[in-house]
């Protein structure tokens, strides 16, 4: 349904409901596809980890964001010091003022650089605001394209409206596996922007802080809900395996992996997740080779062995995961 049609339905509903019935009806406000339906005014942004004296992690409160009940929106990493501030990701658009207020509790330095791990609105929503604060935005060329030309919905309308103020200014290509596309020297830290193959989206970057011994890995690994490869934005389940293997090569055993959601981990903790991806891909392929339909594959409940150990497991996250695997296996 396009926006105009939606408005007509809402208008018609208003005519038929009495004022009091309408007041009790669910809010007519709907999130854009893929967006959280969150109680934005209740969400606080807090420093939840200090990975080095000049590298802090910021997160939203739990329980107010339907997509991310563990902590609203995506993690932000903030490097700060005399040379200014470098941010990894910028949260949902509704939270940018709170993000800045929280940053100002520990640093008055100018916002200089913002790098996006991937396109999703819980990581890039604050881009226009922080560009206005002075940030130069870096991303994969693919992410810039995804932002300028968002995937179409079933009715042909674009799924999101890009805000020109937040479009990345500096872009870089995929390049050789593990090679930094950009290296930033500031605040005594060395920060590498390392592109990864299409995995969570088609434009993922991991961000390595050499001295802090930490890598922001984004969302191709998640320990809250089942894996999510955003195929409409070029994501790939098989690419997630490649991305995990890349982290195996570039991270040390004690390197802190900063995830977009869930808990932060070390690289050994990626291995059970990798094994699950391999297992589900193989089992789905067997079923597809036998001519089974998507419904058959969903009914086979292939995630059953992982349900107990997957925190945040929901029927939606399971169905989405299996549907993605099925689509990918069917393609080749
Ligand atoms: Zn994401």
Can you give a write-up of this model?
The chain is α/β, with parallel strands linked by helices. The strands form two sheets. A seven-stranded mixed beta sheet has the order 1-2-3-4-5-6-7. It has three domains: 30 residues, no CATH class; 229 residues, Ribonuclease Z/Hydroxyacylglutathione hydrolase-like (Metallo-beta-lactamase, Chain A, 4-Layer Sandwich), CATH 3.60.15.10; 58 residues, no CATH class. 32% of the residues lie in helices and 18% in strands. It has eleven helices and twelve strands. Bound molecules: zinc ion (ZN).
Write the layout of secondary structure elements.
Elements: H1 3-16, H2 19-24, E1 45-52, E2 55-60, E3 76-79, E4 85-88, H3 96-103, E5 111-115, H4 121-124, H5 127-132, E6 136-140, H6 141-148, E7 170-172, E8 182-186, E9 189-195, E10 205-209, E11 214-218, H7 237-250, E12 256-259, H8 271-289, H9 294-299, H10 304-307, H11 315-331
Parallel strand pairs: 4-5, 5-6, 6-7, 11-12
Antiparallel strand pairs: 1-2, 2-3, 3-4, 8-9, 9-10, 10-11
Helix pairs in contact: 7-8, 8-11
The structure holds zinc ion.
Residues 118, 120, 200, 219, 260 line the site of zinc ion (ZN).
């Amino acid at each position: 349904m396009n926006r105009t049609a939606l408005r007509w339905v809402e208008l018609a509903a208003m005519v038929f409901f009495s004022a009091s019935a309408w007041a009790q009806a669910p809010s007519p406000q709907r999130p854009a596809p893929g967006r959280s339906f969150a109680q934005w005014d209740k969400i606080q942004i807090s420093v939840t980890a200090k990975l080095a004296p000049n590298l802090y992690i910021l997160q939203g409160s739990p329980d107010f964001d339907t997509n991310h009940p563990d902590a609203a929106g995506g993690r932000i990493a903030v490097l700060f010091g005399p040379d200014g501030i470098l941010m990894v990701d910028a949260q949902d658009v509704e939270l940018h003022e709170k993000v800045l207020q929280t940053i100002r509790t520990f640093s008055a330095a100018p916002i200089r650089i913002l790098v996006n791990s991937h396109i999703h609105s819980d990581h890039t929503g604050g881009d226009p605001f922080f560009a206005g604060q002075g940030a130069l935005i870096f991303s994969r060329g693919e992410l810039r394209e995804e932002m300028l030309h968002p995937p179409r919905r079933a009715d042909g309308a674009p799924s999101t409206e890009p805000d020109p103020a937040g479009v990345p200014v500096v872009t870089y290509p995929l390049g050789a596996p593990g090679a930094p596309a950009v290296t930033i020297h500031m605040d005594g830290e060395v920060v590498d922007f390392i592109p990864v193959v299409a995995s969570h989206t088609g434009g993922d970057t991991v961000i390595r802080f050499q001295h802090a011994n930490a890598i922001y890995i984004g969302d191709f690994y998640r320990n809250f809900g089942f894996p999510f490869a955003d195929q409409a934005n070029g994501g790939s389940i098989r690419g997630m395996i490649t991305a995990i293997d890349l982290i195996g090569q570039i991270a040390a055993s004690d390197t802190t992996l900063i995830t977009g959601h869930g808990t932060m981990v070390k690289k050994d903790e990626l291995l059970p997740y990798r094994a699950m991806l391999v297992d589900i891909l193989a089992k789905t392929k067997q079923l597809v080779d036998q001519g089974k339909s998507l419904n058959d594959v969903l009914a086979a409940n292939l995630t059953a062995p992982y349900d107990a150990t997957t925190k945040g497991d929901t029927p939606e996250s399971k169905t989405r995961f299996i549907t993605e695997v099925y689509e990918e296996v069917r393609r080749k």
